[in-house]
Amino acid sequence: MLIRFRLNGKNISIDRPVGRKVLPILKELGINSVRKGCDEEGKCGNCSILLDGVLTNSCMLLAPQIDGKEILTVEGLSDGGKLHPIQKAFIEAGVVQCGYCTPAQILAAKALLDRKKDPPKEDIADAFSGILCRCTGYKQFYNVFEILKHGKKGSDFTREYRKGYRIVGKETPKIDAEQLVRAEDSFVEDLIPENVLHVHVLRSPHPHAEIVSIDTERAEKLPGVEYILTHKNSPKTYYTQAGQSYPEPSPYDRRVINRKMRFIGDRVAAVAADSPETALKAASMIKVTYRLLKPVFSIDEARAKGAPVIHKRDTSIDPLDIGGDPSKNLVCSNKGGIGDVGKGFDDADIVIERTYSTGHIQHTPMEPHTCYSYMHNGRLVIRTSVQTPFHVRRIVASILGLPESKVRVVKEKVGGGFGAKQDAGIEDLAATLTYRTGKPVYIRLTRKEEFLFTRTRRPLRIKVKMGATKAGKITAISINIAADAGAYGPHCLTVPMNGCSKTLPMFKCDNMAYEVSSYYTNNIVPGAYQGYGVPQANFAIHMTMAEIAGKLGIDLIEFIEKNIVKTGYRLEILKQLGEGKEGLAQKISSCGLGECIEKGRKRYRGWKTGKSRTKANVVTGKGMAIMMQGSGIPGIDAANATIKMLGDGTFMLFVGGADLGTGEDTVAAKIAAEELQIDMKSIAVTAADTDTTPFDKGSYASSGTFFTGSAAYRAASEMKRLIISAAAAVLDVGPGTLSLRYPGAVYASKSRHISFKDLAIATQSGTGCGQLIASGAFTTDKSPIPYGAHFAQVAVNTLTGKVDVLKYYAIQDCGVPINPNLAKGQVYGAVMKTIGHTFYEVLKFDGKGNCLNPNFTNYPIPGICDLPEEFDVDLIEVSDPITPYVGKSISEIACNGASAAIGIAINDAAGIWLDSWPFTPDKIISALKEKR
Amino acid sequence: MEYFSPKKPEEAEKIKNRQGKKNVYLAGGTILNWKSCPSADTLIDLKNLGLDRISVSGGRINIGATVTVQEIADYPGTPGPLARAARTFTGRNIRGSATIGGTVAGGFFVSNLLPVLIAYGAELEICLNGRRKKTGLREWLDKRKGLVCAVTIKPGSRNVFVECEKISAIDFPLIVTAAGFGLKNGKISDPVIAVSGAAARIAVIRVSGAIEGRKPGEIDREFLNESVQKDLRVTDNVKASADIKRRIIKEHICRIMDEASCL
Ligand SMILES: Cc1cc2nc3c(=O)[nH]c(=O)nc-3n(C[C@H](O)[C@H](O)[C@H](O)COP(=O)(O)OP(=O)(O)OC[C@H]3O[C@@H](n4cnc5c(N)ncnc54)[C@H](O)[C@@H]3O)c2cc1C
Ligand code: FES
Ligand code: FES
Asked: Contact at 8 Å (CB) between A680 and A669?
């Protein structure tokens, strides 16, 4: 059918089938900005366009529905090099994080402003109500309108930090924001040529089975089919997909395709064909016969005597001795502690022991996993949306038996990771298929696959026992975490260990014990998720603590204050809590916990509780929680950076770190610019390309700012030294007399100085010392600990069991907030995510391993209209001696408070203690019934 | 797939009735184009039928079938409960496409607007077998025959109230409850309560015995709730149990009667 329409001001006339959706049509026309965040369910709104000025999901339109219409996308908003004011305001407000949803959000703002010049708050929420964002937490979208309508600046929404610095602690635009608001080629999906092979994975319908026979003959004959990978021709290497530093504390328990199926959805075969349709059809022609095995779906079933064994020792190889025994389905175990907990409990006036549990929660990055691989000059190139490009290179090289020099991994823009993309979850398959066929391969998961076949937050069963004296001193804490590892073991140890190592060290208690274990089951595979196991364990610890405080009649805040650590406290417990090896005890280099609590206390005290005067059946209550995290993994992880001075005295910074939209590249550039006394426009960043940037462990474990930032700092410091030494030669003075001055010059005195530009010309000329190139490596035995305190007020409806979060206040100690609005955005995003986890986000199963809700229709996540009516984030400034521009980590930690603060608030309101996520109306009502 | 965009409802209906083929009407497409493209031989686009207007006359509001939910929310003459139902309809992206005709005919498992329209005693203008005719919305829902051309309500004749509960804001509603009744000498007449989300189909409960002939302020909420619930089939779904849904309905009834007491 011939369709005529206007696209971004241009007349278009194209012939397309009636049933063709508008989203792919626009993609064919080179429009990147229509992003497919769901399976065309109408739920994500990331594919939005303005259709005759109306915000519309392009995935829900058929070709004829745009005939005669006018379409606007962000590609049509900017005027050549000039950004539209709305695009500028998005950058200024700091709401461009990963940028996947950003084009749709910009269009929503445009549609609103076209209707109303100065829209009220409700209209702003309504305008964005159909567009999901998993990064920002939405709150700062309101600032966009303050900027546009009232001329405000980014710096009006936050105080500035670090007096005396020009760039660090000040508002500067995120360095990749412009490409994202324009929807320039950024994500893997923007780079795919026409001739790629598409992959369909035939998946196991059985939770536990062995393939007896597999016949691919008919499928292979289907025209367009290029290659079919099964267990028969799969590479034989055992590996872990976990993107962790080598040697990983995760078992090598899988091949690319195994013969044994261990969960519903395990890979049976992968078909690479010239179209997705052909790949799907061919997959349906593969004949498989299975020998069914008895499955296990819970930790208890897995560890029962005589339980079916899911892995044998020779298919679950343990490079580090993480304490597993596959014959008992035990993937790993660890225990330890300090002092004598038995005595601690004896000394207590009150001892409480409780068990808490949590389920599978999905990260739901708006961009699903995507990977594009091809051969170039005999080398394998993988362009992918991943958090750990260097680990992926190692894993892929090892699977294929290649030297790392034959593999290049480039991290493209990542449309949200949150831990889901820490692993080589699809790169292993894409790389194998490309290497076998020599052809380019593209894998893009559907939303359903993203829910089921990537990673989830790990289901944990956490037993906490705590004792305290009448005076409110905690005498002993023990924590026992049993984890569901699912069918394979990535992060099986790290997640539960973090549940201990990022909770126990908040307390100055002499007697602490921990025990962790993970069990193979035939469930889907959990992995890392922002916060690792800390959100779950912090919830468990706080609920127990609040119950004790209540029983002792001590105010919870006072109880907490009596027991928390301060700067200088030596954390002996950390020596025990390593990851697959002994950890490192450390002295707390800085602790803003007390200040965070103090800051929140004032506001919290003013929040009312009790029966609602206006709403029947509604009672309000309040609660709070403290939290900590790490900043990378000392003694295990490493980061490197290189800086080159360019011909005009500007700089190129190369970091291996993987910015996931959180602003890591911006942080690295800011630190280097501060150190080198230059403007942000004088430094550009290339990152996360294993060919061109130095090694970095990647983005996980809250390491971005501290590790990658510190590597950038070291490289910049080294560059400073090189500059001074080169300038000394040119100026013919001693290096000791020289200093760097803004903007980009070296001074001996007022009259004797040289600009970086002149220095670059001098050094790079035929008689110079050569281009100035400096490198910095960062490894450490320390990790500055970020802290925080969150406060929540809730309203509980005792008739329906529905709970609303009315107020939420988060205060974080992230050292020096290097980019304050972006840092706050991380917190808003983390809090909103975990409010979702607290109330409704969980994957449900039918008891036979089938998931009931792997889509946004049945697994809702928070939208802008779910924001608490009062919702604020404050960052305190804490100086830490570890590095001069100390950014401690920020985003993961902010996941650790919501469910604890809310759980305690629910108790305050309704007198019930909830012990499992999510706090559904059904659980609330059943707890209320029990209480009666 | 063949595509038509007829100019008259009769023409559209004629194409729809062509034998031996799967012919479907396309309005906003939010149900029809959900996930994949529709599996049909013929697509009959309703966009050129001229059914895209809201008009008011003689105390009646006539809403053309292709008027979108957002247009209903924005139209100044939309009565409060209907506007409220339209505004709580998921997100703006869907509201801008979804039509009232599609809402009536789509058979979606939970609806914001249908309970309100039923509470108003809405009438439909349909095109059936080449002829235009009027029929009650509730009667039409039983048979679902013909092309819906317009929905008409007479807001002044009935008092209508609506309540909606969701799990998260971007979610479909879990339960929508609407109540409508006339008032004769301050006393309730012809009361109807409509609930969507309780089970797969919308439930319409006549609660005459429980409240007819009484003043709104005199209604015993417990008794009314029991009368509603005893006739109501409620099923569990992935988001909440039947028990929770029943509790929400009870709360809705109480809130509605609180509001009605102020009449
Ligand atoms: C993401 C999402 C969120 C949603 N949220 C809500 C919500 O919050 N509340 C709610 O109530 N509903 C919701 N819905 C469902 C909603 O009812 C429908 O989306 C919408 O109202 C259908 O209208 P449409 O114009 O898009 O219908 P279409 O998809 O075009 O058509 C739906 C069906 O009705 C038929 N049809 C359409 N018009 C006519 C007509 N005039 N006469 C006869 N038959 C006709 C079509 O042939 C088709 O079978 C949601 C749907 C989605 C996808
Ligand atoms: S892809 Fe269109 S709404 Fe999600
Ligand atoms: S910035 Fe919105 S999804 Fe990442």
From this structure: yes
Contacts of A922 (CB under 8 A, 6+ apart): A801, B240, B241, B243, B244
Number of structural domains (chain A) is 4
B159-260 to CATH, choices 3.40.640.10, 3.30.1490.20, 3.30.390.50, 1.10.238.10: 3.30.390.50
Which strands, in side-by-side order, build the sheet including A209-215?
A: A260-261, A209-215, A287-292
Rounded mean pLDDT, B93-102: 98
In this prediction, residue A809 has a pLDDT band, given cuts at 50, 70 and 90, of very high
One domain, residues A483 and A540: yes
Q: Which two tokens stand for residue A270?
A: 């992968």
Kindly give the number of the ligand 1 atom that is closest to the alpha carbon of B51.
41
d(CA A103, CA A88): 12
pTM of the model: 0.97
- Among the bound ligands, name the one nearest to the CA of residue A93: 3
| CB A507 near ligand 3, within 6 Å | no
- Asked if the Cβ–Cβ distance from A129 to B43 is below 8 Å, we say no
Which residue segment(s) compose the domain that A718 sits in? 639-778
Same domain? A653 vs A759: yes
Q: Locate B158 and state its tokens.
A: 């009935």
Q: Which of residues 599-658 of A touch B (CB under 8 A)?
A: 616-617
Q: Are A186 and A367 in contact (CB under 8 A)?
A: no
Question: What residue has token string 């929310």?
Answer: B73
Mutate: best of B108, B109, B170, partner A, most A CBs <10 A: B170
| Interacting residues of A775 by C-beta distance below 8 A, sequence separation 6+ | A640, A641, A642, A643, A694, A715, A718
Stretch A194-210: mean pLDDT, rounded?
Answer: 97
- Reported ipTM: 0.97
Partners of B187 in the β-ladder: B184
Stated as kind and residue range, the H or E segment containing A712 is helix A709-731
To test the pocket of ligand 3, the residue of A36, A97, A144 to mutate (highest count of ligand atoms within 8 Å of its CB) is A97
Cα–ligand 3 centroid distance for A129 (angstroms): 14
Q: What does the block give as tokens for A463?
A: 């037993």
Which residue puts its alpha carbon closest to atom 3 of ligand 2? A42
- Where along chain B do its domains lie? 2-156, 159-260
What residues are paired with A664 via a beta bridge?
A: none
In this structure, is the dihedral angle defined by the CA atoms of residues A703, A704, A709 and A712, taken in order, positive or negative? positive
- Residues A54, B29: C-beta atoms closer than 8 Å: no
Is the backbone of residue A173 left (phi > 0), alpha (psi -120 to 50) or beta? beta
- What is the CATH topology of the domain spanning B2-156? 3.30.465
Kindly state the tokens that stand for B198.
């309780």
> Any chain A CB within 8 A of the CB of B247?
yes
Residues counted in chain B: 263
The overall average pLDDT reported for chain B is 96
Co-location of A435 and A471 in the same domain: no
CB of B24 within 8 Å of a chain A CB? The answer is no
Q: Which of B170, B244, B254 faces A801 most closely, judged by CB atoms?
A: B244
Whole-number Å distance between alpha carbons of A840 and A805: 13
Which residues have CB under 6 Å of ligand 1?
A 41-43; B 24-32, 34, 46, 65, 89-90, 94, 97-99, 101-103, 105-106, 108, 111-113, 147-148, 172-173
Residues of B within 8 A of A40 (CB-CB) are 33-36
pLDDT band at A704 (very low <50, low <70, confident <90, very high): confident
Residues A267 and A413 in one domain: yes
Residue type at B54? I
**Distance from the CA of A77 to the center of ligand 3, in angstroms?**
19
Considering the domain architecture, whether residues A715 and A737 belong to the same structural domain is answered as yes
Chain A: residue nearest B39 by CA? Answer: A19
